[in-house]
Amino acid sequence: MELELSLGDSPAPVKATVAPTPVLTPTCMGDGEDLELVLGVRAASRDEQDNQTTCTQSSEEATQGEEYETRPRGEAPVESLSFPLFVPSAETGSANSEVCTRGFDVNTRLADGGAAAGRPSSPSSMQEVSTRQQVADQEAADDEDNGGGGARKKLRLSKEQSSFLEDSFKEHSTLTPKQKSDLANRLNLRPRQVEVWFQNRRARTKLKQTEVDCEHLKRCCERLTRENRRLQREVAELRGSLRTTSYPPLYGLHHLPAASTVFRVCPSCEHSKVVAAASESFSSRVFAGGTADAAMSSPAAGSPPSSAANLFGARRPHFGPFAAVIPPVLRRQPSATS
DNA sequence: CAAAGGGGGCAGTTACATCA
DNA sequence: CTGATGTAACTGCCCCCTTT
């Protein structure tokens, strides 16, 4: 049995201080327990997108006294973004998919007469949205009249907006100010909305990844526990054989070091601790008081450990090779310079 | 070099829309 | 009607960088 807990680097974070989102490569999940660690929200399918109207900015924007950059109404959206548009896929966020099928999106803004390019709208949906938008505008105006401190609106991004943001997120999980403003222009959103969407999207990705990591590590822990118990039984049996047999008949048991000096098993944590002969092994670095970081940084972390496994020859392939790499701390760490 | 200030990210939370 | 769920938006904090 080979165990390899390999958590790769995240493609997402740009800054070194941001905790990477690990990508698991669970090759240890044999015996039908392989984990498919595929994350990421897919973009809406073309069929779904054809079913909607392009949504524009809510007039509520005017009611929120904030630092958002103002953008001329009806300004043609930026068309030359580098992000892929509308990658076809079978799965889409169900919540957003509801928005336009109901013909209502609070983000849709018609005050500019739909002058912005790329805004196909059916007459019927336009009517309905127009009516609802008037209500929304009135409510926004009321809020403003009340000092703008009213209850915040729950805006739902259109499917097109979400799809485009998803595609952008696949390109880069963080935004430069220019990318933010370009996206906002393209989607007729406020830059703040784009920023918030990316923040929430990163949080969702991290949460999903954390759940996957936990599940994966749980399975690996269970597997290692079972393996450890099995090895302990084997060790006990071999010791019994040593006592009853003058010389080990098979497997080169004479290579087995004295149990009291070589092999210790922590009964509480069930971590094998190879003390002497296998002191150079990976497992000893992991379990013998060493930290996971030390194991990660070890040049041997990715290579098959030798001594512990080879102690027992080909009969004992189960002790290794494996590489246990603990997922990096999710909370961002202080920078190296500070 | 240190303090101040701004910008951006993240964790945690709230508020709202939607659905079963 | 109600609880669960998803998510947009907010708040507060921290870190990094630039400016003074």
Automatic annotation (TrEMBL):
Family: Belongs to the HD-ZIP homeobox family. Class II subfamily.
Pfam families associated with the record: HALZ (PF02183), Homeodomain (PF00046)
Subcellular compartments: Nucleus
Protein name, UniProt field: Homeobox domain-containing protein
Residue ranges of the region described as Disordered: 44-79, 111-156
Domain Homeobox as annotated: residue spans: 148-208
Main localisation: nucleus
Recorded superkingdom: Eukaryota
